[in-house]
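Posting this for the archive.
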Amino acid sequence: MKPLFAKGPSLGVRLLVLVVLSVALMVVDARFSLLKPARSQMSLVLMDAYWITDLPGRLWEGVASQFGSRTELVAENEKLKTENLLLQGRMQKLAALTEQNVRLRELLNSSALVNEKVEVAELIGMDPNPFTHRIIINKGERDGVVLGQPVLDARGLMGQVVELMPYTSRVLLLTDTTHSIPVQVNRNGLRAIASGTGNPERLELRHVADTADIKEGDLLVSSGLGQRFPAGYPVATVKEVIHDSGQPFAIVRAIPTAALNRSRYLLLVFSDNRTAEERANDAAQAQENLDAQGGGPIIPATVPKLVNPTAPAAPAVPATTPAAAPAATPAKPATTPAKPAAHPAAAKPPAAAKPAAKPPASAPATPVGRE
């Protein structure tokens, strides 16, 4: 009876044969290139096996990376949003500081053109009434502000102070319907009255003759005739001039030069409100006080009147002039005494001129002495 399982080589023999075969293949593969085609073909066959055996590990890594990446991305997204918000806030602050710096520089440049004393003020409020154009500034009576004080920005006049509080003031803008200001055309000096219209972008010139020399683009400046605004400040620019043959007055519309709706920092002008007569009287009184103290330029009564007030210092010059150049200008001593003939104190220079004649006498015989 034939056995069910035939006996073969033992396991040890088989292992030894496989080890020897493996070593021989490794030696042949390392030393020679005969097995490269076979290895490449076997790699194609075994590639699917590699992919299948590596699939569980790759699936686990993919799932873990998906959950981990999402968490990290959410955290990173929140962090970037927070940083973006902070940077935007800083950027807005820097933009505001930049604009504030520009406005302050404009104010400094404009204040350099102002002859009067000025002080910077800041707008802190506006009148909620839409029919009045008034603003509130952070300077008041404690800061020296007075009623009627002019207010301007970096571009031109804005208005005047109409109400005082201890630490704040209310300013009436030029465009208010109750406000008017005397102006003149900068080009030819034509005088007119600029009145507010209730529109922050428009002024009107009242009672301008139809034949008046005014045209579009003319600059209107304050004339100073109202004794309230100093003369020479820009007020508006003429935008439109309408001539109607049937009307005695022309319609003149102008645009304020000041940024009434945009200016945040303003200038308060502390001008001299005295009249010309008062200023002259004060100047004369100050001169009298100075003269009484001996510091004024007063001419004594004993000194005769001269055409040139600096003539009393002139006699010192002729006394040294003949001695300095007697030989080069011999004709000067003859003409110099003629000037002090009208002045008794000037008769001394001829006596000083006599010693000046000795140097030519001590010199040896010259052609001039022979003559």
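Confidence is low (pLDDT under 50) at residues 295-371. The domain at 118-269 is CATH 2.40.10.340 (Thrombin, subunit H).
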